[in-house]
Amino acid sequence: MGPRARIASFLCRDEHERQWMLDMHHRLLPITRISGVISLATAAAIIPWASPLGFLPIVVGSIAMGVATAR
Questions:
Q1: What residue spans define the domains of the chain?
Q2: Is the pTM of this model over 0.70?
């Protein structure tokens, strides 16, 4: 069993559960993207009162989430 198969078995017990998880992922993807944009906009709006470095983890996290979601 390869690393990919071990990860798949860790996330889902069987093929039916995997299909359900993928279906839910596709259904929730628009909401996830909207919430990410709202988070970025909120963080950008508070930059004048907070350190711009506080914006950096949000940007890095958003990029990481986007890459992980795409894969």
A1: 3-70
A2: no
